[in-house]
Design goal:
The chain is of the alpha+beta class. Helices cover about 40% and strands about 20% of the residues.
């Protein structure tokens, strides 16, 4: 079984947000940060900070959560981020290993 992650990248505090899902968070965030696809949304809007993530036991659960979050109002997304990351710091990827 593969874990799944839903994550939010931001261009800064309360700026542009990108919500994604992946089974390998470290690699995916590295792709965003390096702008490996210069035409991607995250590259164009400089969303290079990992500000939120959740780990799921199944990738399908992460996909369901991504769909849910994408339908949320912007303010709800901001509140979700600020519950665990009030300063909008770029989260260290080693935290993904310990996330319950």
């Amino acid at each position: 079984m593969r874990f799944g992650f839903v994550y939010i990248m931001a261009s800064g505090k309360r700026c542009t947000l990108y919500i994604g899902v992946t089974s390998d968070l470290a690699s995916r965030v590295a792709e965003h940060k390096s702008k490996s696809n210069p035409k991607s949304f995250t590259a164009q809007y400089d969303c290079n900070r990992l500000v939120f993530f959740e780990r799921f036991d199944r990738v399908t659960d992460a996909l369901d959560r991504e769909k849910q979050l994408k339908h949320w109002k912007r303010q709800w997304k901001i509140e979700l981020i600020e519950k665990t990351n009030s300063d909008w710091i770029d989260l260290p990827l080693e935290w993904t290993v310990y996330q319950p």
